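Q: Convert this sequence to structure tokens.
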Amino acid sequence: MSSIDWDLVDFVVECGAESTADVNDARALPPQCYTSHSFFEFEKRALFDHEWLCVGRADLIPNPGDYLTITINEDPLLVVHGLDGHIRVMTAVCQHRAHLLAEVPGHTDRLFRCPLHFWSYDTEGRVVNATGMKKARNFDKSDYCLPQLKVEVWEGFIFVNLSDSPTLLDKWFAPLAEKFSHWNLPILRSAKRIDYNVQANWKLIFENYSECYHCPGVHPALSKLSPYDSAENDLIEGPFLGGFMSITKGNSLTTSGKSCALSVGDFGDEDFHRVFYYSIFPNMLLSLHPDYSMVHQLRPLSPDRTLILCDWCFNPEAFEQEDFKPDDAIEFWDMTNKQDWHVCELSQQGIASRAYKPGPYSPRESIPAAWDRYYLRFIN
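A:
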């Protein structure tokens, strides 16, 4: 683990103090923010150890006993739908000799059993059986329950917080109250997940997602359906940023240009021809279409590597329809995602160059500039 270079942190904070709300005067973040291992360690402690992080959809663990396996800041975790009906997030590490209780998502009828010495835990994290410990002096199995983290569900998404006393999730998301109600997000069902291992800093992913200035050259298929200059933003400051773009050719962002599923909600005529894009600080990107939603979870792994988990979610009734064609949307966005990740990787290589100095933002990059401002103020 790298030690933290506090002089570098102070330098970046000073950049934050100089940030401006006028995009015409704004410049990109210092390159060290994207390349320094020391600064990445600071981000993990100052940001990812304290913020609410999206870890998946609740519909991925619909039944009691279902669980996901995730890792946040080197901590292996279980996201469990308990037999009592509650969702919990707890360590995946056996409290005896630190062996992992599970390596991949799955289902348990009753217990998590450590394969090393066969200690077992129930879905609430309590030790049920500590094999070989009956004669151990002063041993009380209640002292070895699996540590649990704060967890809440918002709009069908599971969020976890690693800190001891986080802001309540409802309070954190208060600015978004009812904003996404038309899309019925809690009841949507994931049809597909694709994981992308991107060789780029996590902040580049956010900045790329937040503008379509790059779309004509990078996304020709997307630009044919949704003009790059049609963006109108309605969230322009703070941890939640974004707005909508028009769908002018066809009626969905799919390979065919046609709707691939039942509508996810009841919209006015205008919203049937719009796609909404929002970034949710610090690890979620939410794309809302008339016939599906797409969500990206970002899991930073190093200064130049980010794991991105992408889910496509549809009206649950669509799965029973003969004309349900989820691959029409999935293939379109898998192509588009890969185009984005490629340019992010090329930007990562360029940022590491000694020839690079932070450049100015275009007026078409007001949301990336706003994202940088919030980020800099947050770490200050």
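The two ends are 23 Å apart (CA to CA).
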